[in-house]
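Quick entry between incubations.
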Amino acid sequence: MAKKSWMYSVLEAVQYEMRQDKNMLWIFELTPPVASTPGKPVINLEKEFGRKRVVNTGIDEMWMAACTLGAGLAGSRAVTYIPYQGNCMCFQIIQNHAGKLRSMTGGMASMPIVYLLEMTGQTPGFAGQHSDYEIDTYYAHIAGVKTVVPSTPADAKGMMVSAIRDPNPVVYLYPAGLRELMEEVPDEQYQTPLDKAAVRTTGSDITIVGSGGGMPELLKATETLRQQGMKVEAIDLRCLKPMDTETLVNSVRKTKRLLTVDQSYYTLCPGAEVIARVAENVDGARFKRIAFPDAPPPAAPEMFLWMRPNADHIVAAAKKLVG
Amino acid sequence: MSERERSEVSHEAPASGQAQSWGRRTFLKGVIGAGAAVTLVGKVARAEGELGFWGKDLSSDKLTEMFTNIVRIRWHERTMVDKMLTDPKYRGYNHFYAGQEAVAVGVCSALRNKGAFDEVDLVYSTHRPTGHAIAKGIDMKKMAAENDFRATGINKGYGGEMHLSDKSCGFIGADGMIGPGHVIATGSAFAIRARGSKQVVVVFGGDGTYATPHFHSALNNAALLQLPFIYVLENNLYHQYAHYSYSCPMKDIADAARTYRIPGVVVDGQDVIQVYNAARTAVERARAGDGPTLIEAKTYRYYNHWGAPGAKPGELGAFGYDPLAISTFRPEREVRAWMQRDPVDICRNILISWGVLDRAKADAIEAAAKREAVEAFAWADKQPFCKPEDGLKNVFVEGTVAARQLA
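Done. Structure below.
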């Protein structure tokens, strides 16, 4: 056990799996699979496994996604790490190929592959094309692909192990704004399920649901509300598809109030799906969702930080719903 | 000249250990005085009938303007580096163009940069756009304000460095992505050919773009449709932190042009006259309806991919370890070797040797460029910040969108 960052935790999981499976591949561009953490050995996949298995490609996300899929169809496990600038360049391959091949082959195709897609939108000033926090919505919509978004280093490791061992294509979203988060993460290999939400705090007044890069602010708001006497059940969605309807429904049956928080655009954000599923199953509940407005993220921090849902926005919305 | 010789002349920076210990100006004076590398490739190219040698026929005013724009870019970049290093209130994140000035200026000097929107030539730029923007004619003050996200910036604080644009001079703009912009640029060229407006479209791209599927799409369609399109590939050897050999199997990316049966030209990107000659030839071809050209300018950036790690205030260039590069970084000797063939010095010395400028005049131009840059950033510092609620504007032409973060 040691304190580990998100990426150290992920690469530790991948390193173990690549040592077990001599055919497993890692495909990257620009960002070498290297991580370090105090008191632990440096992980360098390229150095350890060589360039036949760990390839640094040119800037071509379509190839990265297609190569990963092709490797899977040929029977090898493969992971590709696509940086945020290119995380929709590969959309066609994932949406129209990886997502449909299992069905189109009548169940014959097996695709033990992981699309590790970096997402950002956390850094004020990056703006426009370098802000793409809305991809959770895009990818979660695809049938035939599991889409997950861990928010802690410990989940990042356990869910990466599960994603690699899963015979289906998994889109594994990495909210890069969490890159500096550190926590105790077990050294040994363990699995975290790809279909379970995590209840972070239990409470009976209101259920607040968020995911990924929005979780730190959501938990901050939960603490503020607790100090003011509100009992919040904070849920980290973790899995967008399949979505853990049971945990959500059970919580709102108890609290009768549901607030969802997204950094994705408002229209069709994951929270919209959460509310729809709960509304179908729980009578007499009240709902509210907050999200990034349906506007491209502007560069100026004054505009961007006001538009991105933060702890103050969450506290205000919760009070309105409970009050 | 064999391909190998041509590559060596145009590509390799001199690596003489002695040269490194000289001042960069002293060294270049020696090289140019001996009539070496600087004009060699141009002469050879002319002998092959590939390029016109237009540079020598330009007016003194035009040549002086080219030198002026080179030093304007240089001092803009240096001032921006110092700003980033010394002013904790400066919020811009920047990709510096220093070292590549001759490419932007050589190309844009062959373009129409003033006039109505259906008259000016169009430029599509990259994530390293400030040099292209200045060479095309953007207002430096407003650009500095945009880079610090001010409400009076050229794009009102919505864009920032990687999305700068200025329609008034045909600068369609920066593009933070690698690939799509090049294909989009062919769309502009397609419209221009259809309406017969005699404009040309230039897209700047880096060596990393060769790996993208968009490179093929842009050149293939431009060649098939004979579009007025010029692809200027600035090969500064690195895409982000990876050497271009990771994305390209050949030494000269311009070789790719053969596949499309279009001209592919390699030029010394440190020599503004060579770049101009190639650009002018390509522009005349495009305007005449004879189709696209691929120009590969061999060049180098003096700073790391992003920001100023390894740089010191008041000093040109960044050296040594870049934490963002994680496991690979450029050898310091390589950076210093390239700095021996500095585009500012090369242009300056050519113009002095041609009798266009004397040293005093060149010094005065450079001093004025430095003042302009310092004043631009000082002006930007005084500009108002954006209003939060303005973030809901400019989504569509009409109206504003709802503030969904508020309950």
